[in-house]
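RETRY 2/3 - previous attempt timed out on the joint model. Re-submitting the same 543-residue input unchanged.
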Amino acid sequence: MPRAVHQLDGHDVGRRLNAALSGVVLRATEEWVEVEAGRIVDALRWLRDDPEMDAAQLSCLTAVDQHDRFEVVYFLQSLDNNHQIEVKAVLEDHDTPSLPSCYSVYTGALLQELETYDLMGIRFEGHPDLKRLFLWEGFPGHPLRKDFLKLEGRFPGLPSFPYEEQGVQAR
Amino acid sequence: MTLLTHEPYSEPYVLNIGPQHPSTHGVFRIRVVMDGERIDDIEMIVGYLHRSMEKLAEERTYTQNIPFTDRADYLAGMSNNLGYCLAAEQLSGVEVPDRAQYLRVIFAELQRIASHAMANGQLVSDAGALQTPLLYMWREREKVLDLFEMTCGARLTTNYMRIGGVAFDPPPEFYPAVEQLLADLPDRIDEYHTLLIENEIFLARTKGVAPISAEDAINGSLTGPMLRASGVPWDLRKADAYGIYDRFKFEVPVGRVGDVWDRFMVRMEEVKQSASIIRQALDGLPAGAHKTDVPLALRPEPGEAYARVEGPRGELGFYLVSDGGPAPARFHIRAPSLINLSLLKQMAVGSSLPDAIVALGSIDIVVGEIDR
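RETRY 2/3 succeeded.
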């Protein structure tokens, strides 16, 4: 998998992060570093304040539904050193996922956390005003979840290309 | 004689702006709590244009998703196409021929000119100069949209870029038209300068209004002209140099105090820089294929990709997750219009309503991209 331009090696970030906050890193790959969901705020604060990591900006926050768990993905950006760090937090509880809000570290998380809460149903504890962003209060379910409305067979995704089962090869 | 029989009395009241309002640039609603002339609190209500693109994209192939992207930010369709195609190429390891790279740069920069013309025109319109400057700036935008139309048949929802290149080679009449546009542009920009830069009313409405410090802008995830106006020379075309942007010479204009005026001027300067990039790209445009053959039945290996481009409004990111199937398992757009609104409350609270309207205009929101 080609890594994005100037993306830091997750192993390297993980090693440093673990040295500063012991046991916070659960897994690291070439691309990203996975930290303990409950300590995400400490990890992000350390990454922001460490002069070498210098993750001054939360560039993108989103989440992925992996059917049995959620991954919350943070893309951090250093503007001075021009590198990118990808941090993940995995939430095993698929029914009522929650993790601490990082609004106290990055004010830019304000609307991105609301969007993730609205569409994925992940609660960000400590967010100043956690409410639905695009959909209205009382909307049933969270659409970006793979089991949205329990529409089995319809979701998730596209199982195959059209007519692929009949042996028609898409170009 | 005393006229006041009791203490001056005031109580906060709620003012509703939108969802249909000329200054909200789409279906965007704000509830403003006001105490007299002063704004005490604001609440944004978005979602009127929510089309659930990210969910729909999970049911469509990688190629079928390209038209969604230009419908997200309909004022910068080309930039959106480009960002998505970069992400899909990163995910599936597709190489892009040289000519396509140059054409992508030309069209992305033309799009920036069109989008900034719209942004600045709307901003001036919000500041009270109703319609006249806006329509002046739309002259250039119309010319750019004509170029899009002759190349790909559409003016807004372009659907022009493809995974592995671009859909069409520009027709022969494209080249004289773009030369004419580039020749006219400096005069036109000078015209706006004389119209606006010495205009006392416009200066009063924008100078020192809604300033954002560099620290706040960085921490608040602002990107694009909003961030650069605060004095941070951050441009992904330089920082990431995605595609072939390292082959072009251009400058990154920055502001000083990060007020509405600086945002206006940064956009104005960026139009000049874009014109210079287009000039260089046209001069260096190589012959050859404009796309590689990529199978429509694309099944990238399981994995993820995050590609971003410097869109007219800021960092436009596309996060794709593949589970090996024909459709992306996750498709997320990092929408600069939405994220740049994070600091709207900070800008608006304590100021007056006309200033807040100008501040909102200077963010240059596109509701289609906020709501997706």
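Chain B touches chain A through 53 residues (CB under 8 Å). Closing ticket.
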